[in-house]
Amino acid sequence: MTRIVVIGAGPAGLAAAASASQAGADVVVVDEGERMGGQFWRHHPAFTDARLQHQLGRFGDLQKALANVRMLSSASVWRVEAGTPLRVHALFGPVDAARREGETLEADAVVLATGAHDRVLPVPGWTLPGVTSAGAVQALAKRDGVALGTRTVVAGAGPFLLPVAQSISILGGQVAAIVEAASARTLLTGWGRRPWELTAAAGKAGELASYLGTLVACRTPYRLGSAVTRIHGGGSVEAVTVQRIDRSWRPVAGTERTVDCDAVALGHGFTPRLEAAIQFGCEITPERFVRVDGRQRTSVPGVHAAGEITGIGGADAALAEGEIAGLAAAGIPASDPRLRAPERARRRMRAFAERLATHAIRPGWTAWLDDDTIVCRCEGATAGVIAEYARVSSRGMRLATRAGLGPCQGRTCGHSVEDIAGTPAGFDRRPVLSSVRIGELAAHRSSHPNTAEREQEQ
Questions:
Q1: First CA to last CA across the chain, in angstroms?
Q2: Are residues 69 and 96 in the same domain?
Q3: How far is the C-alpha of 97 from the C-alpha of 336, rounded, in Å?
Q4: DSSP type of residue 436
Q5: Are strands 109-112 and 226-232 parallel, antiparallel or unpaired?
Q6: Sign of CA pseudo-dihedral 29, 34, 39, 40
Q7: Range of the domain at 258
Q8: Same domain assignment for residues 240 and 293
Q9: DSSP assignment of 193-206, as one string?
Q10: Could you tell me if residue 433 is inside a domain?
Q11: pTM of the full predicted structure?
Q12: 29 and 169 share one domain
């Protein structure tokens, strides 16, 4: 029986596990969350509003299909190894627990479904209480039924701003404004190009209608071609400056307006979580995604990838890719009829995924930063200091400022630091994928005496 380890229990991971299990494989799913579902299915059973509960029917079907799958939650994967067999090293328990138990999972195939996290661009004042990521606002709404504030500005880029704003409205909060960086012309050019390609993703039109209906009913202002360029407040958020930006996202002088609010949700797209794929040795595209073939296979034998790490495309694309990856990992041939439906779904969603580039971050955003704007929150490194030391070298900048070297290891600030420095810094290349205590590492090495030899060989 083929042994498969799936890393990640979001839509892609669950779909991969379900399809592989139904194909007769022995499947284990490891996920850092307390329960399966990932960011998309972060639902609380007491909240029944359909606008907050997305695709619950599909979630229920997957749960039933996972009856024979070993599900390991609160699992921190801290190292992976290519070879025969493939190895996944994990620690189990809350990340702040004093004693976590470790386990090494050996597999014939691995499906990487590690997903993505919010990217938030620094803004002067973004460290004030009341400022958080758009994803965190959505998580609070879905999981806890809590709105971030009473009057919230939702700002950034991309269609994800719309469901976040809707969630706030559903919970009784007021959305003071949605501030979208893409201009009306950019949206028409990007989303209006070859519109017939989007007819296959008709379900997205229904979602869009729901979001816009809520915004119209609540009379929510929708500012296009604009950005929050400053957040004001003493002990917490009191207002923001909204400013027009040009095509490169540089603020246009003289267009400032002040919007009163007590909360700000920032979201400028998503960053794929590539660390495990990079440690396996998978080929990464110039756009910083895992390169896969038509069967979701990476460049490393036995390692497959699905979901946002292969390209940001939403839950429907992730579900289709996960199903294909699970069947391929289980050894199902390309001619098998079970692949037809997910392959069609993947093709349908590609046109939608390609349009998301309309909202891609432009380099001019750094112009709204002050020299004293904190960029790396873990180490308190400011934009001015990062830029100053970056003139010498990338390594010198990191050593002098410690930007990206704090507890989050650059997961939050890494790309922003690279934009300011003007050079890649390799923040997603990590020898240890998650936080590990020295005692936990020592315990692992004592129970795996050949670990050091394998590391030297690699």
A1: 28
A2: yes
A3: 45
A4: -
A5: unpaired
A6: positive
A7: 120-268
A8: no
A9: SSGGGGGGGHHHHH
A10: no
A11: 0.91
A12: no
